[in-house]
Each structure stands twice: as structure tokens, then as C-alpha cells.
Design brief:
With 147 residues, the protein is an all-alpha fold. It has one domain. 67% of the residues lie in helices and 0% in strands. Helix 3 crosses helix 5 and helix 4 packs across helix 6. The chain is globular.
Length: 147
């Protein structure tokens, strides 16, 4: 089954169009949706660890130059924030928000990093329900920029 999914993902990447069709899942999202909740937690934690370790390696190898600074500002800063939040919240809560993000058709082709950003922002917002959280923050502030 996983081999079939892998072949599907590879063929999707190889034959992708310049402008993705909104109804078509990106390979990363297609893979994400095949995972169980426990596997999603593991995937997310692995992704966070990879970004953290990459940033630490950049510091060791390059110091705090332009590349390291860019990587921190555009990738690692969010990851550090999520790691800090994991002291208070379970990683499963982030998985719920990532699933919520990808449940909307307009986001099925967006990068995983943007889904993490959405999850982090919603996790920080007070409120018990999704509606409470929407009411307390403007959705436009968390929508990804159009490229």
C-alpha cells in the first residue's frame, strides 16, 4: 500500500502543472492525509526536529551570517515557538489544527510550513471552539500570501 502511495506521489510530482488545480492535493498533503493521528504526530515532531537541527548546524558551520539569519527568520523561529508551546500543549493539538487547515480546499496545495504556522497561531489564540478562535482573531492575518 505504501509503495503504491509513493509511486502516486512521485508521478504527481513528475507530471505536475505550473499552476496547480485547487482540487488536486499536493504530494505532501496527500501523504499527510494517509497517516494515522499517531503517525502525524511523529511526522510533525520529525519535521520540527529536522528544522531545529538544520538551524543548529548552520550556526556551527556558518555562524550568524545572512543564511543563518534568513533560515531562523523564515523557518526556525516558528519551530522554536512550537517547541516552547509543546511544554504546555500536546503535539496532537497541532495535528488537529494542521488537519483543519488542509480540510479547506483552497489550502490543499500550500506548503506544510504554512499549515504549521496556521496551527501555531490558532493554538495560541484563546477559545474553546474553532468559532471562538475565529472570532478572537482575524482570519486574514493567518491566510497565506498569494504568490
Amino acid at each position: 500500500m505504501r509503495i503504491l502511495i509513493s509511486l502516486l506521489l512521485i508521478s504527481t510530482c513528475a507530471f505536475s502543472q505550473d499552476k496547480p488545480v485547487p482540487e488536486t492535493l499536493s504530494p505532501a498533503v496527500a501523504y499527510w492525509k494517509t497517516l494515522t493521528p499517531g503517525e502525524k504526530e511523529l511526522y510533525l515532531f520529525s519535521y520540527l526536529t529536522q528544522v531545529y537541527e538544520t538551524h543548529q548546524d548552520l550556526i556551527k558551520q556558518r555562524g550568524y551570517d545572512e543564511v543563518t539569519t534568513w533560515y531562523y527568520e523564515n523557518r526556525a523561529e516558528l519551530v522554536y515557538g512550537i517547541f516552547d508551546k509543546l511544554k504546555e500543549e500536546e503535539i496532537s493539538q497541532f495535528v488537529v489544527w494542521i488537519d483543519e487547515y488542509y480540510s479547506h480546499e483552497e489550502y490543499v496545495n500550500r506548503p506544510f510550513f504554512e499549515a504549521m504556522s496556521f496551527a501555531f497561531r490558532f493554538q495560541q489564540t484563546s477559545g474553546e471552539t474553532l468559532w471562538d478562535k475565529y472570532e478572537k482573531m482575524k482570519f486574514d492575518k493567518i491566510k497565506p500570501d498569494d504568490d
